[in-house]
């Protein structure tokens, strides 16, 4: 069973579509990185998945149910929104009591242990915490809720490098210990590379690629050689992008077959290269005959 499945999902605000025609299937047991340019619909997708928004079109199923459909469904999903919102006038102790009151599967031992390990004073008000400490408090609540799926929307964007590292280390420990499925959006590809085993690239509300990170890197190649028309390439090579000079052609292709043409110099892509190629080229230079898995 998929932990998140969307088909033709769309959300419209007045005359503007924030998300349109989005289809996605995420299996449980993975940390999935959701990446794309501003306005691609990442936050809208996560808000719909959490039950904070209702879709205008299409369908979505999260952890076997409809987002926000009732207490049982809400208990399955943890959500940390952008800027890791906490209540500035409430103490850490107040946050933990509120979490226990609102969440039927609340794990008090996990919450207390994390607060103690992080060196946080339960009496301190959230408004007095640093950005990293607020992020850790929000993550603590999300983990102690004991959800099946944890949704994180740009959770480390405002943190300094040390706080980001600590947050991501704690996230991975929680995933390993509690078997969480995680979908995390971020502009920081290097952070996604450290923690994610699955990747989803969302551009103009459309899922351009999704799948296992290692597999995606293995089937993408940058080819450089004498100038040629990309339509002359083998049909199994999906051309993601193509650039030409007077004498040279550089293409990024996706294929599961070996590159046999000796005229090409073949190079692998980094994860950041891969993401940027798809973000910069919303439509493939030459579509594949079929979707490669």
Fold and architecture overview:
It is a single chain. It is built from nine helices and 13 strands. The strands form three sheets. It has a six-stranded mixed beta sheet, sandwiched between helices. It has a four-stranded antiparallel beta sheet with strand order 11-12-10-13. It starts with a strand and ends in a 13-residue tail after the last helix. Helix 4 (108-117) packs antiparallel against helix 5 (131-144). It has helices at residues 42-50, 71-75, 92-102, 108-117, 131-144, 161-178, 189-195, 213-218, 271-280, and strands at residues 4-13, 16-26, 31-35, 57-62, 77-80, 149-153, 181-185, 198-203, 206-212, 220-226, 238-244, 248-254, 265-268. The chain folds into two domains: 4-213, Rossmann fold (3-Layer(aba) Sandwich), CATH 3.40.50; 219-280. With 293 residues, the chain is an alpha/beta fold.
Overall pLDDT level = 90
Shape: elongated
Q: Cα-atom Rg, whole angstroms?
A: 21 Å
CATH class designation of the largest domain: Alpha Beta
CATH superfamily of the largest domain: P-loop containing nucleotide triphosphate hydrolases
């Amino acid at each position: 069973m998929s932990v998140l499945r969307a088909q033709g999902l769309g959300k419209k605000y007045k005359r503007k579509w924030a998300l349109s025609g989005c289809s996605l299937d995420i299996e449980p047991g993975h940390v999935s990185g959701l990446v794309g340019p501003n306005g691609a619909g990442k936050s809208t997708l996560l808000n719909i998945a959490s039950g904070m928004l209702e879709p205008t079109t299409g369908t979505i199923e999260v952890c076997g149910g409809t987002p926000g459909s009732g207490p049982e469904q809400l208990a399955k999903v943890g959500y940390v929104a952008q800027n890791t919102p906490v209540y500035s006038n409430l103490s850490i102790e107040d946050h933990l009591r509120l979490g226990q009151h609102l969440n039927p599967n609340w794990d008090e031992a996990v919450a207390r242990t994390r607060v103690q390990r992080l060196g946080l004073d339960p009496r301190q008000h959230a408004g007095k915490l640093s950005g990293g400490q607020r992020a850790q408090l929000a993550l603590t609540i999300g983990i102690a809720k004991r959800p099946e799926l944890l949704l994180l929307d740009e959770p480390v964007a405002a943190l300094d490098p040390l706080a980001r590292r600590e947050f991501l280390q704690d996230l991975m420990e929680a995933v390993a210990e509690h078997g969480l499925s995680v979908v995390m959006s971020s502009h920081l590809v290097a952070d996604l590379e450290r923690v994610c085993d699955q990747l989803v690239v969302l551009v103009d509300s459309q899922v351009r690629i999704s799948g296992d990170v290692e597999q995606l890197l293995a089937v993408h190649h940058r080819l450089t050689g004498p100038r040629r028309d990309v339509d002359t390439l083998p049909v199994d090579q999906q051309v993601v992008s193509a650039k030409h000079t007077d004498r040279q052609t550089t293409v990024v292709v996706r294929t599961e077959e070996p590159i046999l043409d000796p005229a090409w110099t073949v190079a692998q892509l980094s994860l950041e290269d891969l993401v940027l190629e798809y973000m910069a080229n919303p439509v493939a230079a030459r579509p594949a005959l079929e979707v490669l898995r």
